[in-house]
Amino acid sequence: xxxxxxxxxVPFRNRVREFSTRIGMSLVNQTKLITAASELxxxxxKYASGGKVILEIISHNAKTGVRLTFKDEGPGIADIALAMxxxxxxxxxxxxxxxxxxxxxxxxxxxSNPGEGTTVTVIHWKHGR
Amino acid sequence: MNTTAQVLEKNKERILEKWMQNQLSDASLRDDLxxxxxxxxxxxxxxxxxxxxxxxxxxxxxxDTEFEQVTDTLRxxxxxxxxxxxxxxxxxxxxxxxxxxxxxxxxxxxxxDTSTLYMEIMQLNTLLDNLSIVTFETFIKGRExxxxxxxxxxSEISTPVIRVxxxxxxxxxxxxxxSARTQIVMENLLQEIVNTGSNIAILDISGVPAVDSLVAxxxxxxxxxxxxxxxxxxxxxxRAEIAQTIVHLGxxxxxxxxxxxxxxxxxxxxxxxxxxxxRNDKNKGLNIMR
Lengths: 129, 290
Known about the structure:
heterodimer; A: alpha+beta; Heat Shock Protein 90; 5 strands; globular; B: 2 domains; five-stranded mixed β-sheet; two-stranded antiparallel sheet; 10 helices
């Protein structure tokens, strides 16, 4: 899914909801995943002015889950450890987006090189673990 | 040898007749939206303009002055149709069925000269394709205007400030809170606090589908602005799953009064203003004492 404008956020969240309902995720886990997705997609819009998200349903060792891959070609993150710290923000926001999203999902992976863009992959399992 | 324009001019009546037939025979035509008389009048005006333009020797460039009248009429028709609720198919059929009528007439008239016929049909094809593109552009523009107006209306009606009691305001927020809406919400709320002299505002977020850090930030801003005005803010309608996500995200709402439902928020507001709600034993009705 392409995300280029703020108006794309709501349809995107609905797609995530659709995917997580399809595998029978509970409401709490759905909300967690959607909120994390919302944080990441807003980051993408704000710092990289848009990008792509791949939504997938995956299974692994009899677990099913939703995997979201956020890919952008923005400026990248210079200091990942600093960006993952609570309360740090370069954009006058609460600074909870990245660390918060990490706490909300089961698996979180962030790759970024300055000047080359950022890729964030998150996985949330059906039962939240 | 007659030119294309002359042939068409001579057979204008037949073209119009065929065109009308094509339009009326289309099963999708909505005669409830437009009478056939009106359609006939519109079509005649359009055909007149088109033939006049073609007779000046212009076959392809619809942006020339000769075509101004035609494109104007066409835009007019498309935009009225978009507003009246015609489907894109109906609007498109209008121009495309003219093409059919024109070609049919030309085929009749040019039976002996296929190479000229071929050239003419090619020219007409390009011309009418261009005209149908104009139709679509305008049709979509008409629809977009409708959408834009609705967006305006939604943002206007979506943030009502309700006075639930003397000095207590409630503000149900429905949908996603973005920066633009927060601005409207805050403005409305602060203005209403001034107007009514209220000192408690209840922000109800039951209708907000997801609370992420941006929404939370906007809420915190609204609350601080309300506090600056000397009023207290209660956030209500925090659902169980939202409470969990807020905690995981690490958003600190502990210095803001929050309640699960609007009812309990109202109760808190009553106790903050030293109001008491109790049952009247005499007639079993609700009686609110000051």
